[in-house]
Structures are given as C-alpha cells and as structure tokens.
Amino acid sequence: MSQPLRLGIAGLGTVGVGVVKIVRRQAAMLEARTGRSVQIVAVSARDASKDRGVGLGGYAWETDPVALAKRDDIDVFVELMGGHEGAAKDATEAALATGKDVVTANKALLAHHGQALAEQAEAAGRVIRFEAAVAGGIPVIKSLTEGLAGNEITRVMGVMNGTCNYILTRMQDAGLPYDDVFEEANQLGYLEADPTLDVGGIDAGHKLSLLSSIAFGAKVNFDGVELEGIQRISIEDIDQAASMGFKIKLLGVAQLSGRGLEQRMSPCLVPADSPLGQLKGGTNMVVIEGDAVEQIVLRGPGAGEGPTASAVMGDICDLARGFRVATFGQPAETLKDIEAASSNSPAPYYVRLLLEDRPGAMAKVATALGDAGVSIDRMRQTQHDDQQAPVIIVTHKTQRRDLDAALEAMHGTGVMAGDPVALRIETV
Amino acid sequence: MSQPLRLGIAGLGTVGVGVVKIVRRQAAMLEARTGRSVQIVAVSARDASKDRGVGLGGYAWETDPVALAKRDDIDVFVELMGGHEGAAKDATEAALATGKDVVTANKALLAHHGQALAEQAEAAGRVIRFEAAVAGGIPVIKSLTEGLAGNEITRVMGVMNGTCNYILTRMQDAGLPYDDVFEEANQLGYLEADPTLDVGGIDAGHKLSLLSSIAFGAKVNFDGVELEGIQRISIEDIDQAASMGFKIKLLGVAQLSGRGLEQRMSPCLVPADSPLGQLKGGTNMVVIEGDAVEQIVLRGPGAGEGPTASAVMGDICDLARGFRVATFGQPAETLKDIEAASSNSPAPYYVRLLLEDRPGAMAKVATALGDAGVSIDRMRQTQHDDQQAPVIIVTHKTQRRDLDAALEAMHGTGVMAGDPVALRIETV
After folding, report:
1. Which of A62, A165, A191, B420 has the greatest number of beta carbons closer than 10 A?
2. Where are the CATH 3.40.50.720 domain residues in chain A?
3. Which of B149, B294, B334 sits opposite A137 (nearest CB)?
4. Which CATH class is domain A5-133?
5. CDD domains, alphabetically (chains A, B) (predicted)?
6. Which part of chain B has CATH 3.30.360.10?
C-alpha cells in the first residue's frame, strides 16, 4: 500500500476550488487510477471566511502561501495564485527549496522565470508541472513532452487566448466593431484586470514561450516572442479576409529557422476551412507538427473551473504515479540558448491601406512594393464615398522586413491617409 | 548514467521500419529527452534478405519472434506484426513471461485478449503500451489515461478508420457510388487484405473497445461493440444528409447508460459544421468528454509510417523514462465487468425508405412509426420517375428498439420496395 500523495493548495479562486472539488468527489477513482490516495492537507488564500461553495474545514489553513509551501506534511505544492512576481514566485521557490514537487497554472511565472525555476527544481530532484498553464483543459504539454517525444518538432501553432478568439468571432458573427465587442467582453467578465494581457497577446505569448521551449529544447525566451495584439483589427479586415476564404485569428507560431527561433503571437489570416479557421468563441486549439507525426490538432476549452482543474489534476495524478518528466521535457542544463529570430520566414501578407483619393496614389504604393521586392498577388480598391480610398493587397510570399521597408517607403510619399494594417497569412 | 533501453522489434513492415529510422536518426534527441540511450538490439521478420531501405546490419536477427521476445538482452519487446492469434500473441506472452515490457500497435490482439494480457503483465510487474493501436499518431491513449485522469469520462467518440472516412468523403466530393470508391480505395492499397475489417467497422470497433476500457474502467469487451459497416451507405444518403446540414461518418461512440456500457461503431449523421463533420479523408479524430474537462477533440493522421512510428516511440520514451501506467489505466484486477447495453440511448434518426408508389403507402409508414411511439420531425418524399418512391424521414429522439419495431411493422405492410436505411444522428 503506497503512501498518500499530500497536497497543499495555494489560491482558492475558480481553479483552486475546482481542484478541491475533484479531489473530494473522485477520491476512489483517483486512487484506483494512481494506486495512491490523493489528499489535501492544507490550503492557502487571503480570506478564510469566504464561502467558496466547497467544504474546506478538514484542511489546515495558511494565510501565507510561503508557509504553506514549506510545510513538511505536503508532497506537492499546487500554485494557483497567479502573478509572476511576489507570493507565487516566493512560494514556488520555497516549495522547491524544501523538497516539494510543484504543480502550477501560472504561465506568467514560468514565462519569466521558467529556466531558473527548472534548474532549482532539478537541483532539488523535483519537478514543476504546468499543464494548466497552456490551453486550459487540453493535454498539450503532455502530448508534446511525452506522446510526441519521438518527433523532431518542426512547428507549433496555437490559438491560446479564448478572450481574443471570442472577440474576433463575435465581431464577425455580429458585425460589430472592435470597441463594442471589447466592451461586451468586459461586461461579461472575460477580460483580465489589465486587458492588455489578453488583447495585446501577452497572455498567449507567455503560453507560446512555454510550448516552444519544450518543442525545440530551448530555454524559455518570452522576450523573444514578437507580440502584436488584436486592437487594430477592424470589421473591414475580417470581412475582406472572409471574402478571400480566410479567418483572422490571434495565432501563436513557433518554428526554427536557419537564423534562430521565431516566436510570434499576432493576428494572422488562416484558411477558413482549416481547423484553426473553424475555431469559434473561447475554445483553444494547438497544432503540433513533427517530422514523424506530420500534424496533430488538439482542441478544447481554454479556461474555466472544470477544464483548468482537469489539467491540474492530470499533473497531480502523474506525480501520484511517480511520473516525473523534466520541467521542459529534458534537463534544464541541456536546454539550448537559441537566438530569437525575427519573423522573417517568407509568407504571403494581407495589407490594408488607406490612401488619399488622388491620381497617382495607387502607383506610388505599387512602386514602393516593387522597389522593396514585394510582389502583388491580388489588389483591390474597395468602394468609398469620401476622400480616402481603402486598398486591400495580398502579396506573394515575402519577408516581413521587405514588406516593412515598402510600408516605410509609402509613408514618405504623402499618399497614406492612415496607418497600414499588415497581417501574415499563415499556411496551416 | 542510466543503462540504455534495449529494444527487440518484431515486424519490419512500414511501421517497424519507421521505428528503426527514428531510433537511428534521433539517437541524441531521444537520449536528451529520456535521459537514456535507446538502442535496438535485435529484430525479427520473415525475410532477412529483403531491402527495407534502412540499415539493419548492426542488429541480431531472429526468424522466430518468440525467440526474439525471450532474449535476455532486451528490455522492451516491440510487437509490430499484427494479427490477434498466432505469432503476435505467442510472442507477446513470451515477452511478458520473461520480464519484458511490451509496446504494440496491435488493436486486434488487445481487443480480443487485452484483459488476459494485462493481467499477465501485472503479475510479472510489466506493462503493455499501445498508443499506436488507436488513431495512429494521435496521443489519445496517453491523453485519456494520464492527461484526463482527473475526469470521470462521460463519452468517447471517434472516427478511427481512415479508409472508411476516405470512402465517405470521396463519395461526397466526387459524387461517386460506394462500389466505385471502394474499388478506387482498393487500387490505392488503402484496404486491408480482408476489406471487411475496414468497411465493416471491425478495425475501428477494436479501437473503440480499447478506448472504452480505459475511459470507463471496464474490461475490454469487443464483443459488446455493436458493429455496422458503411457498405449500405448510398450517395443519396450522403446528399440528403448534406441537405439537412449533416455529414455521414463511421463513428464510434462509447458511453455508460443506466443499463450498462453502450459501444457502437456505425455510420452516423453528425452536424456538418462540427469538428467531426469537417473531418476529411484519412484523418482520424477522437472526441473525449469528461465531467471536468467538458470536451477535448484530438485530430491527426490515423495511419502511415511516420505517424504510427511516432506513437510507438512515445511509448518507448515513456518506458525509457520509467513511466509505467497500467495497461488500461488502472490495475487489471480493478477493471469492472460492465454489462454491454444495446444502443438504446435516445437520439433522432435518419431513415431512408423505398416505398411502392401507390396510394396509402405513406400512411402505412406513418402509422407504423406512430404505433411504435416514434414521432416524425421531418419527412420528405424525393422526386422519382419509376414505380418506387424514396422517402426520407428524420425522427424526433427515439430509442433504437422502437424504431426497429416500426421498421419491422412496415415490412409487414407490403409497401416496402427495399430494405430501409436507419442512421443515428449523434449529438456532438
């Protein structure tokens, strides 16, 4: 008879309560599957008196998560507080320093301090598991680290921020402008306290940096992620994309090029009939491509009590079973310091310009593109009533820097009536 | 420094060669990820002289797979021969009896003998891993057994025979009848030597029985799978389904009902805009629903050298890392003997009838349905030139046995000009 696995849970928000519920409700099932009893010993949250809809009376209460992490009667420290500095970081370090494994849903913490924490964990013979930090209930970390361990990964892509996908889907379905849908999402409580984390692509960028570390055996490099949010996407972009058979998604892409590791989180056009293009609302999707497996697509809820708690429980069950994969899939000391490469792998681009409606404007634009070596696949000037002409261009495959040079040159011609929008068309 | 993990590979067909290639090409990567060197010690196949496009000279050769399985210089027996009796079974048993873990792609073997083999493995302190047996490169066994271990699974569904999905997709896209596309698939080498394994749903049924064992903690019960093939699906069915917003898929569904475990592998209508409905060609898809995670959808190639070898390698890497999950996710002795329930959970049905074109025929059909308690949602008689009238009916939710009673009664009325087709409309 194995010893029970003893948990200390820090953070009793939605996810923490979800984990407590599963451990209580499914005790017999968890023991049958893992061969051990999974028990909560102690919990920590700011307000002990709050009714969280689940019985917590049997557990020791710690006001200080660091004190919880250091308790000698727990085996696993479950960090569900969030935030990449302060209590979450201190408590995680304290847990590792005192010999606990750590299960966390904290993408920001690992995106900023993953390498140092992984090294600390390994020095202590412990692991950090973080399935819940990426793509909610989808077992994507496990698939990448274990199921696809025989693959040289060639590309990882994902729609990993449900709020952004909700906003973009809703703009299209309801024909509403960004600002209205943003406000709607805010009212519905879908946005982070700092909404830039969502719509600026930061939250999704954190997730991408974790996936690319595992995929390419690289040290986490969140600063190497080129971030671009969805704030400038207009209904016109969505409609124009749709008319050409595309959807606009806040898409993360990580791939190795000859010059280094490209990581970008930005609005992209993807084929409307691809799995990514068909994804609606708050659902997440991760696409993994490997030399042997070709392409795997994983889809599921990206947030919420049940799905996120499911991911946390998967990690806990692994630890109960004694499965300890290295934090980023291989020993931290073997992770490479791969240089961040700017997103220059060639792709077609969608470009929306607003031109002064006067003779020769279009010629100046076409010349700027040609001079930069960017060739045009399709171009259309859409109907307009005022003095400004919207122009949509789809380029042939080009490098982003050449396109940027062309856009820069256009600015100098005096025909531009507004800032251009340039979105990569990703092959999926 | 850990000891190398030593493999003996029986079967050097497409998948076996794929595994050899990965082990040779990715030696450094595999060692970085698992912390051990993964080495092939010995192989077995009928013809040692055949050129398989990969170097095999460094490995011991065994003509007899049982002799390979018994070698004391291997840790893992990799069974890639196929077949549920004979050499594959003998060799697997011999491997377990002599203390090896087993990795296999053999769905038939486990569908027929999974319980006995799992018990034998556990008695010997070994495990059988079979990621490659279900849905090719998709890490579905791992997701279900480990990633979703905190979930009470409520339903598992899947399109798990690429050949059937190819045939159905091709019929729709090219407007070709079943027989023509079947012949085409045959020419392309997509069909098993006994094509009934594919088009009769047997191969996919094997896979479903393995998934439902893990999902519901039940002993594998392939005999409990209600099997229905795609041989009777006509273009008209596909077109009628499409006109109502559905696609026809050979869909496996496993779920617990009050009366036991329902397992069915049969052609079903699914919404055209659902992930299952959008699946084309040889790609596989598995949908897993759990009480916490809600719904996860996994999609990927269901067959082929690379994808299947990827799945085998995932299992091998787990063993190299020392991860040994019980064969069906929990100890074999704890697996329940859940009674097979016939597929009576209520659902709407699509029914195509061919009636004698004479007055009162439709009334007799409607009466038979009404008498059996089956109510009609939609009904249409399609255009026809001859003496027989095709009628399409969509029922409200009904139990299959009530529908069958109605169809039985219709037969007695003398108005039926052919056998009816009745397909479940699955909510996805």
Report:
1. A165
2. 5-133
3. B294
4. alpha beta
5. ACT_HSDH-Hom
6. 149-301
User: In terms of CATH, what superfamily is B349-425?
Assistant: ACT domain (3.30.70.260)
Pick from B33, B148, B309: CB nearest A292:
B309
CA distance linking residue B215 with residue B255, whole number of Å: 9
Active site residue A207: yes
- List A207, A219, A247, A364, catalytic entry: A207
Residues in chain B with CB shorter than 8 Å from the CB of A297 are 297-300
- A54 vs B contacts (CB less than 8 Å): none
Burial class (CB in 10 A: 0-12, 13-18, 19+), B279: buried
Interatomic CA distance for residues B73 and B32, integer angstroms: 23
Cα separation, A314 vs B149, whole angstroms: 6
| CATH architecture for the domain at B149-301 | 2-Layer Sandwich (3.30)
Query: Tens digit of pLDDT for each residue in B193-250?
Result: 899 999 999 999 999 999 999 999 999 999 999 999 999 999 999 999 999 999 999 9
Residues of chain A neighbouring B334 (CB-CB closer than 8 A):
32
Q: How far is A48 from chain B (nearest CA, A)?
A: 25
Confidence label for B298 from pLDDT (cuts 50, 70 and 90): very high
- Residues B407-420 have pLDDT tens digits of 999 999 999 999 99
Q: What is the pLDDT of residues A110-132, one digit of tens each?
A: 999 999 999 999 999 999 999 99
The ipTM estimated for the assembled molecules is 0.96
Query: Structure tokens of A168?
Result: 């973009």
Helix, strand, coil share (%) of chain A residues, nearest 5: 40, 25, 35
The enclosing H or E element of A258 equals none
Whether domain A140-302 has CATH 3.20.20.70: the reply is no
State the average pLDDT over residues B323-346: 93
Terminal CA-to-CA distance of chain A, rounded, Å? 49
In 3D space, the residue among A72, A65, A73 whose CA is nearest the CA of residue A89 turns out to be A65
Q: Where in chain A is the domain with CATH 3.30.70.260?
A: 349-425
A78-93 tens-digit pLDDT: 999 999 989 999 999 9
Confidence band of A259 (pLDDT split at 50, 70, 90):
confident
Give pLDDT, residue A1.
53
